[in-house]
């Protein structure tokens, strides 16, 4: 494998934040172990990135002081730091284009002089924010690669939780194709990396250059051996981790576990907080399971991993989840995932490591999860086998290093130094007609 000179665009990559900034930083740092990576970042994250001391070949910092102040003020005063809104994504459109325009003018002479073999954009992760670089490089010998991209999941009908959280702007999501650079971004890209089956199918007309690489990853150091010492008569330890927002459907997890909790066979830990907390607490009281449920609120990431290592099963029936970071962590720490078969969790979990229940309706999902939990409560050998297989699965395929290797195969193909990689999406969820609604 030849070492590539990679110009990697990741304006918000940040080792000290969570979610997408952290995910993209870890991905970039893993690629930097394999290649000479020049990381292009915005000035607000420069201090954190330098302090982390990842082996980047260089840091290229783009300064936009006035725009950065406007964005930060808007994030604080208008959006109240609510990153879980599609309106914020739409709001970021001009700022994203401005960053790439400034980065291009700052680096264009070096790019066109051949200082780098390939340009890879990992941020923004959403497909709805186009790239100027794709057009700028269209006549250049330097290939342009996008991804992993994620987002754009439909809002399944018939779920009260989703109706509570669905935003008016979701109906306009596909309008990005008609915005400036919306079409040319993907038409001129040499390769498109999708982080979900949904994204891969969204760009199915470019199927000859679309590859699947999952969004999250795990540090190899977190893939420790199982330290559980189960004893006869131990309760089945269940856990939910996530924001207490409607689409995460913590209420369905609790309803499904209630029979085992009432019988004293299981205990349930809820890690997370959010606007649904009061409703969740009322549900716990109405189900009569107060003595078997522990509400932790938000805890540190280290504490999350500690609690996952003490759990037997992650019950995570999220109804709309583009990524699956907590599922990766559950598998790595030995908590067997039980998820809804949709989005990121549905792409990652398989029958060798966990359970997926069909996205049908609320009552059916509750009934299906109830059956799964009952099976696991009565068959600890099965639980142990799934646990071991899940931990091995992460070590082999879901670490940051494994993700960097998969991305490398795409980059090598893009620069014509390697064969076309075989990285198909795990499944296709929707027909073209329904995915555009």
Explain how this protein is built:
The chain is globular. A seven-stranded parallel sheet has the order 3-2-1-4-5-6-7. Strands 10-9-8-11-12-13 form a six-stranded parallel sheet, sandwiched between helices. The protein is 43% helix and 14% strand. The chain has helices at residues 19-34, 46-52, 65-77, 86-91, 93-112, 132-136, 160-165, 184-188, 197-202, 250-262, 277-287, 301-310, 325-333, 343-348, 362-378, 380-398, 400-414, 432-435, and strands at 5-9, 36-42, 58-62, 118-121, 144-149, 191-194, 210-212, 236-241, 266-271, 293-297, 313-316, 336-340, 355-357. It folds into two domains: 5-217 and 400-435, Rossmann fold; 221-397, Glycogen Phosphorylase B (Rossmann fold, 3-Layer(aba) Sandwich).
């Amino acid at each position: 494998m030849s070492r590539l000179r990679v110009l990697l665009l990741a304006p918000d990559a940040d080792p000290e934040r969570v979610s997408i900034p952290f995910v993209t930083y870890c991905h970039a740092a893993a690629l930097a172990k394999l290649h000479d990576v020049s990381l292009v970042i915005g000035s607000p994250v420069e201090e954190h990135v330098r302090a982390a001391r990842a082996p980047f070949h260089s840091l290229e910092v783009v300064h936009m002081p006035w725009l950065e102040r406007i964005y930060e003020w808007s994030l604080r005063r208008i959006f109240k730091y609510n990153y879980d809104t599609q309106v914020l994504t739409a709001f970021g459109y001009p700022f994203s284009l401005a960053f790439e325009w400034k980065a291009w003018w700052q680096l264009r002479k070096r790019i066109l002089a051949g200082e780098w073999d390939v340009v890879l954009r990992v941020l923004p992760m959403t497909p709805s924010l186009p790239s100027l670089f794709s057009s700028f490089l269209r006549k250049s010998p330097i290939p342009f690669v996008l991804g992993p991209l994620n987002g754009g999941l439909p809002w399944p009908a018939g779920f009260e939780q989703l109706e509570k959280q669905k935003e008016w702007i979701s109906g306009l999501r596909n309008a990005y194709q008609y915005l400036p650079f919306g079409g040319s971004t993907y038409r001129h890209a040499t390769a498109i990396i999708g982080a979900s089956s949904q994204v891969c199918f969204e760009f199915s007309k470019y199927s000859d250059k679309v590859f699947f690489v999952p969004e999250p990853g795990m540090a190899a150091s977190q893939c420790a051996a199982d330290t559980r010492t189960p004893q006869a008569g131990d309760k089945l330890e269940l856990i939910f981790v996530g924001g207490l927002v409607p689409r995460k459907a913590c209420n369905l997890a609790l309803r499904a576990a209630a029979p085992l909790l009432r019988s004293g066979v299981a205990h349930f830990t809820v890690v997370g907080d959010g606007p649904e907390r009061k409703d969740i607490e009322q549900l716990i009281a109405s189900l009569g399971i107060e003595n078997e449920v522990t509400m932790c609120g938000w805890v540190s990431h280290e504490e999350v991993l500690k609690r996952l290592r003490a759990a037997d099963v992650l019950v995570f029936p999220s109804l709309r989840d583009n990524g699956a970071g907590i599922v990766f962590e559950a598998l790595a720490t030995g908590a067997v995932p039980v998820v809804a078969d949709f989005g990121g969790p549905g792409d990652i979990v398989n029958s060798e490591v966990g359970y997926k229940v069909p996205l049908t309706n609320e009552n059916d999902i509750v009934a299906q999860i109830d059956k799964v939990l009952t099976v696991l409560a009565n068959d600890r050998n099965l639980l142990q086998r799934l646990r071991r297989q899940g931990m091995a699965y992460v070590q082999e395929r879901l670490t940051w290093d494994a993700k960097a290797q998969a991305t490398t195969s795409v980059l090598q193909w893009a620069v014509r130094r390697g064969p076309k990689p075989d990285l198909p999406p795990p499944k296709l969820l929707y027909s073209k007609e329904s995915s555009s609604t």
